[in-house]
Write a structure and sequence with these properties.
InterPro entries: HTH_MarR-typ, MarR/SlyA-like, WH-like_DNA-bd_sf, WH_DNA-bd_sf. Pfam families: MarR_2. This is MarR family transcriptional regulator. By secondary structure, the protein is mainly alpha-helical. The chain has a domain at 40-145: Arc Repressor Mutant, subunit A (Orthogonal Bundle). It contains six helices and three strands, in the order ααβααββαα. Strands 1-3-2 form a three-stranded antiparallel sheet. β2 (88-92) and β3 (100-104) form a beta hairpin. The longest helix is centred in the first third of the chain and has 29 residues, at 10-38. The radius of gyration is 18 Å and the shape is globular. It starts with 9 loop residues before the first helix and ends in a 5-residue tail after the last helix.
């Protein structure tokens, strides 16, 4: 009963409790800040940010879902709303012509630029201001390893 696979140390239990708290509260807090200040849900913000970083500011719907760690149906709902606001468009896939690409419009780019300062202030206040540069590097590596071991989360 005392082997590593059947028990946790006090530090491991504390880590898992802290991680659970962050997983459950941080997205809601960041989302609430962005909705209050910009009337833009966090998922929509991240969709726009993902598109601005993509080649030609376009991605397949399935790739957008993977980038956002949400289901394709969730990505479709997000894109539908962004499309209704004129922030993205759907175009026939540039790679194979079968599926649809989501393309960032100039209005979508401007909306992202408007929202960026609010998101940055929220991220700093809620996360970054509480960590040293070394802690940021270590946490980035650790979360990357956890993410890689957990899969893409969009199942």
């Amino acid at each position: 009963m005392g082997d590593r696979n059947s028990t946790m140390t006090r530090e491991e239990k504390t880590l898992m409790q802290a991680l659970s708290c962050v997983i459950n509260t941080l997205p809601r807090a960041l989302d609430g800040d962005l909705r209050r200040e910009q009337e833009l849900p966090l998922t929509e913000y991240f969709a726009l940010a993902s598109l601005v970083d993509a080649k030609d500011r376009r991605v397949r719907m399935s790739e957008l879902a993977a980038r956002l760690s949400i289901t394709i149906s969730g990505a479709t709902r997000t894109v539908n709303r962004l499309e209704s606001l004129g922030l993205v468009e759907r175009e026939r896939s540039s790679s194979d012509g079968r599926g649809a690409d989501v393309v960032l419009t100039e209005s979508g780019y401007e909306r992202l630029r408007e929202a960026w300062p609010s998101h940055l202030a929220s991220a700093r206040r809620r996360v970054l201001d509480h960590l040293s540069e070394d802690e940021v590097r270590i946490l980035t590596r650790a979360l990357g390893a956890i993410s890689a071991a957990s899969g893409d989360g969009a199942d």
